[in-house]
Design goal:
heterodimer; A: 191 residues; alpha/beta; 7-stranded mixed sheet; 6 helices; B: 392 residues; 5-stranded mixed sheet; 13 helices; 16 strands; 39% helix; globular
Chain lengths: 191, 392
């Protein structure tokens, strides 16, 4: 029996931190005893250019080393990319979309032409309120925990404390954890 | 699931840098900008943090990096460097000198395309250009193997019956920059495993002066080359011995060949590096459909595991060889070697050559299936090179 991997594809613009977010997702899943992969698609490295990152999460060691073609979850960090055909390439009937946007679910669904579950969270806005910087990563991870259940809030909190705790003062760590929890609570889905 | 001690999600480059930290080499020389890998970037941090005792020498080119480690190793130091692609190509001249001077240097290589046109992605052309240089070549499938093989390489190269430099190949970007799960060994365990370097004929032993790199014309050069040829003959045996010892401390098994589902396999695919993992997954898929398929992945490409391949491929229906580099005007390097190994096999399988993934072109499960399916219907031509994932 070939192993089942749970696969993510991230869409963002270079410089928005999707690579780090994908890595944090992997680390959070590792905390839970899962096997993980996290890798970006490297193109010409120009800030603002569309970029992709990928995750695989599984209960067994992951063998495949090609890029993710039929993602279970598509995460969109920048809603100005909505409408680009790359976002829906290879998606399945039940692929879940999680989008950082202040727009509502139906607007996003129409723009994507998506059939499955579509979720929105104003991650940049929440990040500005809590962290005082427009870095949506931790909010998105909270939303991913709520929507997919592959990682738990606790596992990401643990990761944030471990990685941010080394580099930043306590208030920054706490602000990120508030942002994470708000992502978990405020993500809205339909479908 | 219980937490495994020392289990981390890291890039292949971080995994190797951590192996180097645990080895604590005397000297690391590296050219610190592109086409260098993040391996030396992470390692330089360990040096700056005082986590190692290494003398780190930033040099002005890759040619100088290899020259500096050759000098250091000849002096009696345990010396390492890392490189990729055009960096390895620039080292080329000194790569041969390291091997012919019998210096057990260990060098991780993040395998990437050679220019031109300019491309920084995964490709095996860089290592294949050095396949006749006299270095041992080990090939890793993932970050875990990259870490493990770096430790094994050190013991292998320094072994009295070998005394040769070792390249640890790991796929550029796919492994070097991709994050995967790696189980690290304890520092103390590694320290004990690698032990103290066994220094032979060091330049710094002034009481017993020696000469390195002298003029050696038609009087003795040939005999010295014969010694290199003979040293290579001990590599597989020593690798097995070291791998056995490594298994005791890690629980992870290495051999000359990694064999996946081959016992009853009628169709065997052969590939190096990270693609072997994707092939294993495809083997699982095809087995579910009732196809008797398997994979053989050489952990050692130089010396070439000819005898081991002859044993395992004899009598199979078909063998499909995947190469991530081309040899313009000739057969691809892995294919050529496998085909030549089969010349004296009693029951020759049908054989086919597939070149894939040049310049980082993604290799997908469907491509691998396609090559297997050609084999199922007997549609292989030993004299034809085919391509996977290439636009016509």
């Amino acid at each position: 029996m070939p192993a089942k991997y749970y696969e993510f594809r991230w869409h963002a613009r270079a410089g928005q931190g999707a690579k780090s977010a994908s890595q944090m997702l992997a680390e959070a899943a590792l905390e839970m005893g899962k096997y993980v992969q996290s890798f970006p698609e490297y193109g010409a490295e120009r800030t603002g250019a569309p970029m992709k990152a990928f995750n695989r999460i599984a209960d067994v060691p992951i063998l495949v080393h090609s890029s993710v073609e039929n993602p279970d979850v598509v995460i969109i960090i920048d809603d100005t990319m909505l409408g680009q055909p790359d976002l829906v390439a290879g998606v399945k009937e039940d692929t879940i979309f999680i989008v950082n946007t202040t727009k509502d679910v139906e607007y996003v669904r129409a723009k994507l032409g998506a059939k499955g579950k579509v979720c929105v969270v104003p991650a940049t806005a929440i990040a500005l309120e809590e962290i005082k910087r427009g870095i949506p990563n931790t909010v998105m991870l909270g939303a991913i925990a709520k929507v997919t259940g592959v990682i738990t809030l606790e596992s990401i909190e643990e990761r944030i404390r471990k990685t941010f705790g080394k580099k930043f003062p306590e208030e920054v760590v706490e602000a990120n954890i508030r942002a994470l929890r708000r992502g978990f609570e405020e993500v809205k889905c339909n479908g | 699931m219980p937490e495994v001690k020392n289990r981390q999600a890291v890039t292949g480059a971080q995994a190797i840098a951590n192996a180097m930290r645990q080895i604590n080499p005397d000297v690391v020389a590296a050219y610190p900008i592109t086409p260098q890998t993040p391996v030396v970037e992470y390692f330089a941090q360990y040096v700056a943090d005082g986590a190692v005792d290494t003398e780190m020498i930033p040099v002005e080119s890759e040619h100088s990096a290899m020259s500096a480690v050759v000098g250091a190793a000849a002096a009696g130091a345990r010396a390492m460097t890392a490189t990729a692609a055009n960096g390895l190509a620039l080292m080329h001249e000194i790569v041969y000198i390291a091997a012919s001077s019998r210096l057990p240097i260990v060098m991780p290589v993040a395998n990437r395309a050679l220019s031109g046109p300019i491309n920084i992605h995964c490709d095996h052309s860089d290592a294949m250009a050095e396949r006749d240089s006299g270095w041992i070549q080990l090939w890793a499938e993932n970050a875990q193997e990259a870490y493990d093989l770096t430790l094994i390489a050190l013991r292998l190269g320094e072994h009295e019956d070998v005394r040769l430099p070792v390249m640890v190949n790991f796929d550029g970007f796919i492994i070097s920059h991709g994050v995967e799960v790696v189980d690290f060994l304890d520092d103390e365990v590694v320290k004990k495993f690698v032990g103290e370097p066994k220094v032979k004929y060091p330049l710094l032993d002034v009481d017993n002066p020696v000469t390195y790199g002298p003029l050696d014309l038609y009087d003795y050069y040939f005999e010295h080359k014969r010694q290199q040829i003979e040293a290579m003959k001990h590599v597989k045996r020593v690798f097995k011995e070291v791998a056995e010892e490594f298994e005791k401390i890690s629980g992870r098994k290495y051999d000359v060949l990694d064999k996946y589902m081959v016992d009853d396999a009628e169709y065997i695919m052969i590939a190096l590096g990270s693609t072997a993992g994707t092939i294993k997954y495809t083997v699982d898929l095809l087995r579910e459909q009732g196809h008797k398929v398997g994979l053989v992945k050489p952990w050692i490409f130089r010396p070439f595991p000819k005898k081991e391949l002859q044993e395992i491929l004899n009598g199979r229906k078909a063998v499909v060889v995947l190469d991530r580099s081309a040899s313009f005007g000739a057969e691809a390097p892995l294919y050529e070697a496998v085909k030549s190994a089969l010349f004296n096999v009693e029951n020759k399988p049908l054989i086919g050559s597939y070149v894939y993934g040049l310049g980082g072109r993604d290799i997908k499960v469907e491509h691998i299936k396609q090559a297997f399916e050609d084999a199922f219907v007997g549609n292989l031509n030993p004299d034809e090179e085919r391509y996977l994932g290439l636009r016509e």
